[in-house]
Design goal:
This protein is α/β, with parallel strands linked by helices. The protein contains ten helices and nine strands.
């Protein structure tokens, strides 16, 4: 039914089922759970209840924190992440670790099903690594968990090598600030600060052909002499955010629920070929979905440890 809140429609549906034996049998014989599997356990339900009851000061506007990490595959990083959240006074009930695949678990069948052609050849001479595909599949699993378990909210998603940035003490105020602007943004990168955050509206070579709409959009900005887009904050704002069409890293994001659904739909139904590294894939999405509002925060709340040379990369060091 389109609207379960319409009582007349509900009553009519009940009457139809009562008077139609075959319809009734069809309904009762269907699996109770999707894929005949109960996705939510008593443990996950109890954790969600605790999250609602606990007044979690640093992240009180966040529905859930997700980490692309598996204790089995990356035990050291799992410990590092748990220490980080403990130091930030974030209760463990708020954090979910999702990482169903790792580079050594990617079979040729999985690889072939998800990479049908190598867009990456437009960037380099080597094909996609299994470790690069693993990040795709793990991030997709995180987004699917949000889609399945929520119908609204704000979510922090971290990669396993995230570390605390220089403006971390302002994170609670920042999260409160963007909550007041809910609906004006889809995705905010809260990672490492870079000098071009408040410079030209940058984009990169993604390995895909840029759409005519995107080229026209950028040319129009350049023609008007607009150096960058700052449309939901300004120079006097408590926190500043600049709209971008490329990522600076994918280690630390704040996602709105609507942003999750938009991007997940793109991954599933519009561009299911994962033939270029994840950050380049995201850039192509941003260039082809101009209504999707993606920003870089000027403040640096987290940064990518492997990108800074403090942790060994688990993607670039292995096929």
């Amino acid at each position: 039914m389109k609207d379960i809140n319409d009582i007349d429609m509900v009553i009519q549906k009940m009457i139809d089922i009562k008077n139609n034996d075959s319809l009734w049998l069809d309904i009762v014989n269907k699996p109770v759970f999707v894929n005949e599997k109960l996705e939510r356990t008593l443990d996950t339900i109890s954790k969600d209840i605790k999250c609602l009851l606990i007044n979690q000061t640093p992240c009180k506007t966040i529905s859930k924190i997700y980490c692309v990490n598996n204790e089995l595959y990356e035990p050291e990083r799992n410990v590092m992440l748990k220490h980080m959240f403990h130091n930030l006074n974030i209760n463990s009930e708020y954090v979910s670790y999702i990482c169903p695949t790792y580079k050594h678990t990617i079979t040729e069948e999985i690889y072939g099903a998800n990479i049908k052609w190598q867009n990456v050849f437009n960037l380099r001479n080597t094909p996609m690594k299994k470790s690069e595909l693993s990040l795709f599949l793990n991030y997709k699993a995180v987004l699917e968990d949000i889609e399945k378990n929520y119908n609204d909210g704000t979510f922090l998603i971290f990669e396993s090598d995230v570390m605390i940035g220089r403006n971390i003490n302002q994170l609670p105020n920042f999260l409160d600030y963007i909550e007041k602007k809910k609906g004006a943004w889809d995705l905010i990168n809260i990672g490492v600060y870079s000098e071009n955050t408040l410079s030209k509206n940058c984009y990169i070579d993604t390995g895909y052909n840029k759409s005519e709409n995107f080229i026209s959009f950028i040319n129009n900005l350049s023609g008007k002499g607009i150096p960058y887009i700052e449309d939901i904050t300004d120079i006097n704002s408590e926190f500043r955010m600049v709209r971008k069409f490329c990522t600076r890293c994918t280690d630390s994001f704040v996602w709105s629920y609507s942003g999750v659904i938009k991007f997940l739909n793109y991954m599933k139904n519009i561009e299911p070929n994962f033939g270029v590294p994840f950050d380049y894939y995201m850039c192509n999405f941003l260039e082809n979905n101009l209504n999707f509002k993606h920003y870089w925060s000027v403040d640096e709340f987290f940064f990518q440890g492997s990108n800074a040379g403090l942790l060994q990369t688990t993607i670039q060091c292995n096929e």
